[in-house]
Design brief:
This protein has one domain (19-275, 301-324): Neuraminidase (6 Propeller), CATH 2.120.10. By secondary structure, it is mainly β. The two termini are 24 Å apart. It has helices at residues 226-230, 303-324, and strands at 18-19, 23-28, 36-42, 45-50, 56-61, 67-73, 82-85, 91-95, 106-111, 117-123, 131-136, 142-146, 152-158, 167-177, 196-201, 207-212, 215-220, 235-238, 245-250, 257-261, 266-271, 273-274.
């Protein structure tokens, strides 16, 4: 497979404000959520999804991160990775994890408010991919974003509406390129800065976000034009260091970010947006000026070469991990 390197242009902050220092909201200690990988916001509650398990389950968390209601369906998922809440109240689980890249189909599992469920299988046009991020557009269209060790992620969209029992082909609609940022965190070293692990669309439908193990990227969204939004320059937000950060959501105000990850206890962190703050200067978009510095360490190789070296290590780790575990 040919290697592709694309640079994602980044604006350091939004034009009307800036993201402030992260604040720990609460800590999840429930043993039923040891591998939290998906978050969604519903009013004053958080909805959390576990990576793995023998049933499709979503846990409702209160402001203290205590589990209340559990919504589930008699569906045995393979490797669910992300979660989104539709306007009609349906919870959508993206059963799209594929560490070994050998699945003939992936799936979208819907948990409806009336207690019924649906399962739609999806196929890629170019072979299996591992995907951990779901972007659910305001019109209900799902977009899957792949997790690639070289940072060259692809975005796929179903060719038809989701339907229970159907198998729907997908089309690749966009390419994204992530570069090294220097933000620490994640289980695979610097390569974690390139691996997309979660996605979210704000409640008001005006923003979308993707995260890696270390950073979040936020784009403005108009209508349901997810592809058009992703063609623009996002705001990059360095996230607090975490052993395996995979979940991201917007808060109820549609601006603050909420992030968490695998492991117990799992700290749920809010990254507040301050509309009164003065934005920082925009980051360079010239690939030759792209920073790949971690802390005070100075790179002696180019960002691209450094990313390739990091990706080789990540490939070995992810491959080994996928061989040992069905669920990531």
């Amino acid at each position: 497979m040919a290697l592709m390197w694309a640079v994602l242009p980044v604006a350091a902050q939004a034009a009307e404000g800036a993201y402030a220092a992260p604040v720990a909201q609460c800590s999840i200690g429930d043993p039923r959520l040891p591998e939290l990988s998906g978050l969604a916001t519903a009013g004053g509650t958080l909805l959390a999804m576990n990576d793995g398990g023998s049933r499709a389950e979503v846990y409702v968390l209160d402001a203290t991160c205590a589990v209340g209601e559990v919504r589930s369906a008699q569906v045995d998922p393979y490797d669910p990775e992300d979660l989104a809440l539709a306007a009609d109240g349906t919870l959508w689980l993206a059963d799209t994890g594929d560490n070994r890249q050998d699945r003939a189909t992936v799936a979208m599992i819907g948990l409806r408010p009336d207690g019924t469920s649906s399962l739609t299988r999806l196929t890629y046009p170019d072979g299996p991919h591992d995907a951990e991020a779901l972007l659910l557009a305001p019109d209900g269209t799902p977009y899957l974003v792949t997790k690639e060790v070289l940072g060259a992620s692809a975005v796929y969209r179903p060719d038809a509406p989701l339907a229970d029992g159907a198998t729907v082909p997908m089309t690749k609609v966009a390419d994204l390129g992530f570069t090294l940022t220097g933000t620490p965190g994640g289980p695979v070293g610097r390569a974690g800065q390139l691996l997309v692990t979660g996605g979210a669309v704000s409640v008001d439908g005006q923003r979308l976000a993707l995260r890696t193990y270390t950073d979040a990227y936020v784009w403005p969204l108009t209508g349901s034009d997810v592809v058009g939004a992703l063609h623009g320059a996002p705001v990059r937000v360095a996230l607090p260091e975490a052993p395996q950060g995979e979940a991201i959501s917007f808060a109820a105000n549609s601006r603050d970010l909420v992030v968490a990850g695998e492991g117990l206890p799992s700290v749920v962190t809010v990254v507040p947006f301050d509309s009164t703050a003065t934005p920082a200067a925009a980051a360079p978009t010239d690939p030759s000026a792209s920073s790949a510095t971690a802390g005070s360490e100075r790179d002696t190789v180019s960002p691209v070469v450094a990313a390739l070296l990091a990706a080789v290590v990540a490939t070995i780790v992810v491959w080994t991990w996928g061989r040992l575990r069905r669920h990531a």
